Amino acid sequence: MGSPIQFEDFAYVVYDAGYSYSSVLLPGHGARVNDFIKTDADNWEYHLQSEIDKVKEKYDKIYLVGHSMGGLLAINASLIKENKIAGVVMLSTPLKTNAFNFKFFFPKLKLLLYPKDNEIRSVYFKSNSTGTSNVFLFLLFAKPFFSLHKLIRKTKRNLSQVFVPIRMIHSVNDEMTSYKSAKLLCDGLNNTQRDSFTLYESWHVYFFDDEKAFIKEKLLDFIK
Questions:
Q1: Rounded mean pLDDT, 48-61
Q2: Which end of the chain is less enclosed by CB atoms within 10 A, N or C?
Q3: What is the DSSP string of the chain?
Q4: What total of structural domains would you count in the chain?
């Protein structure tokens, strides 16, 4: 349910260093809930490939940077040799989620109860690209939810086939992505160069300033 607006700061850092960037808005995002619930993993993968096709003839190297589900899409796209993927950076990417973890129920509830001017709440609402035209439509989120888990299963099967360098960043405080995903990814990506870094305060979407600066540093360092 995110949008490119979440990553403007990271995109500017890359651009200021002399690299081109393209921010991808996936099908069903940036629209109404009605549109979102009609999309699935096939739509998202097809769209990402079409975006890569637009630039792969222009550039010798392409780096994919994916947040959450975007990291799963990036990993699978890197398996296509013609895509010329030089590396993948994954931020908060799940191989295991906290969707039914009782420990993280209260942080999610607290987020809803924050006053409207709360910084964390405002970041979540600003980054959410899916309108809430009818709150009852949220009951139909089963399709995209199961599509996410379809992507997780597919990615698990493909991890040993990945040969491009990988950088992973996970937060122990992430209320959506289980921190256990970091180890699962490291263990599965056993045929490629990979490294993993830990955040200790940030949420799934909200990043504290010092940790946001850390992500920028590791992102730029990886590309360089």
A1: 95
A2: C
A3: ---GGGGHHHHHHHHHTT--------TTTTSBHHHHTT--HHHHHHHHHHHHHHHTTT-S-EEEEEETHHHHHHHHHTT-GGG-EEEEEEES--SSB-TT-GGGHHHHHHHHHS-TT-HHHHHHHHH--SB-S-GGGGGGTHHHHHHHHHHHHHHHHHGGG--S-EEEEEETT-SSB-THHHHHHHHH-TTS-EEEEEESS--SS---HHHHHHHHHHHHHHH-
A4: 1
Which bin fits 63, alpha (ψ -120 to 50), beta or left (φ > 0)?
beta
Query: What's the pLDDT tens digit per position in 76-105?
Result: 999 999 999 999 999 999 999 987 776 666
**Range of the structural domain that residue 123 is part of:** 4-223
Domain at 115, CATH number = 3.40.50.1820
Average pLDDT in the chain = 87
Q: Is the pTM of this model over 0.90?
A: no
